[in-house]
Amino acid sequence: MEWSKDHPGKTEQFWKVDFSRYEETIDRDPRATIFPDRGEAGTAEFGALRVLERLFARDGSLPGVRFELFETIGTGGSGVVRKAKQTALGRDVAVKSIRSHKRTEAAIRDLLHEAWITGSLEHPNIVPVHDIILDKNGDPLIVLKRIEGVSWSQLIGDAGRVHQLFGVEDLLEWNLGILLQVLNAVRFAHSRGIIHRDIKPDNVMIGQFGEVYVVDWGLAVSLRNDETGRLPLAARATSLAGTPCYMAPEMLGDSEYPITERTDIYLVGSVLHEILTGHPPHMGRDAMAIIGSVVTSNPEFPADAPEGLVRICRRAMDPDPDGRFENTEQVQLAIQGFLRNRGSERLGRQAETTLSELETQLARAVKSDRKIGSKERSELDSGELSSSPSAHRQRLYRLFGACRFGFREALAAWHGNYKARAGLQRAIVAMIEYELAQGDQRAAAALYAELPDPLEDLHRRIQQAIEFQAAEKRRAAELERLGQQLDIRVGQRARALATLVLGLSFTIVPTICTWQWPFTAFDNHPKLIVWTAIFGVFTLAVGYRIRRSLRESAANRRLFSLLLLLIAAEFPLQVGLWSAGFTADESLLVHEFVWFFLAAIIAVTFDLRLLPAAFGYLVTFFIMAVLPESRLYIFNVPHGLLTINYVLAWRSL
């Protein structure tokens, strides 16, 4: 059959492989390793058997002489592994051999290839090969370090057992640590030109003290031809081989992409996928579904999977080898970077939780500020909202302070934590909106200065709100100033005292003069003009004495100005009446009406309680008009009434 798949940036790729012969194997166990066709080795590689013949000729020892064999500890493919003891050194080892019913020249060759490849890779994370010996039938026995432990596949998803064995609390971090050690082994193998081709948790052993070993190098191939026939060549690895639920697209066989280091990088990505999801990436109801998953290589992840690891996994598992990491070192650096930044991400997630609570409280605060029914308000007040606005504001700022601190700590640990940066931005913007709604533009401006990323529209709104608030304050200050200036309560004591002094002066002095010198004190116009001048000078003197009070109050200034205006107006009025032929006592009648008019204006303009004094002038005016002979005796009586009225009214303010 023929399978085709488009790859971005590449021409259409074709796999001309008959997958039907693998269906039964894949359906039975997609986690089992599929070994390549035996014909892929080539003639030169069968020289390995001649090496075996020379080995047999040189070493005729039997395992019973040098090793004691015990029970089987594992089987796979055509091989079997048994416990053994190396008698000369008295140490425990493992011996791998070919199962009797699987014995073929190809099986012998594969076992030797695995031994030679593994033996050439001396690395702390690769199981050491101690020796190759022959049994009595001349079949090879591979002597390996015995690992006291379990496969990674038994621990990768078992947090409880990992904690029990190693005291680990964070399973993800522990698994990533194991993967980094696997990468150490793979990176070393790549430096020697060796590709593993079957990296999976089943092929990683964890020792009882946490040692990590990459095992089962039976599918490994070499990128370099050493001309000895000991190492199978990657260039000849053209048939399907590997573990289906982990394998890369080029491992399906007959691919335009060769087997390279990036094939192992894909397998590392598949293991990382299992760490994140709990299962290998290529799973399906049947073999063809699994193969289809291998071809598309579009892994899925749970919503809570760390984005940093998801990005690493997707890149490592790119179906196009050119889209993957260039080498294992890049994968290691990426995972190490994630582990360094994981603390930052944890702080960011904690801050996100606090931010969600803050946003909920802010939404409730907005709701409580609206015009809602008393029943609903009562429910809100008895719920999470505080009983007073100030207490609720303090709670909001406690939440804001907590999430802001968390986001800042996350950014301090990892400047590239864009989620923490976005969360900090969101928290500050939310509080700015709250402060703008509360009318505290200065607080909003102070918060804006903390934004990681400026927002021009928000900045413009804040500036407009500040300008509007400043204008409102200026208007309020001006209104307050005007109110104070027009407030008759300001300077009331000085005004009442001045009124008393002037009123008594305008009343007592004329009365004494009238009774002392009847018909002579005010019997002509020149005398009236002189008296007016005297009262004017006296009024100016009183005004100078209370000048501070006059400055404090526009009401006092206007009252005093009206009084001065009236006195000043009496001079031309007196001259006009004199010129018109009015007698002195007739002019007193006119002056009485003028004083009534002034008193009425003051009462209507400043204080209606002063109306009785105005009516006193009016009543006196009519009496003087009806009883001319009484004019000189009563014209100054309203001044006394005015004084009493004004003092009583202003004293009670």
Q: Please, could you describe this protein's structure?
A:
- The protein is an alpha+beta fold.
- Among the domains are: 347-483, no CATH class; 487-651.
- It contains 23 helices and twelve strands.
- The chain has helices at residues 20-28, 47-58, 63-66, 105-120, 159-166, 171-191, 261-277, 287-296, 307-316, 328-369, 374-382, 389-413, 418-438, 441-448, 456-486, 492-516, 525-545, 547-552, 554-579, 584-605, 611-626, 631-634, 637-651; strands at 3-5, 13-15, 67-76, 79-86, 91-98, 129-134, 140-145, 149-151, 194-195, 204-207, 212-214, 221-222.
- Strands 3-4-5-7-6 form a five-stranded antiparallel sheet. Strands 8-10-11 form a three-stranded antiparallel sheet. A two-stranded antiparallel ribbon has the order 1-2.
- A hairpin with a 2-residue loop joins strand 3 (67-76) and strand 4 (79-86).
- The longest helix has 42 residues, at 328-369.
- The radius of gyration is 53 Å and the shape is rod-shaped.
- The termini are far apart.
- Residues 1-14, 60-64 and 371-386 have low confidence and may be disordered.
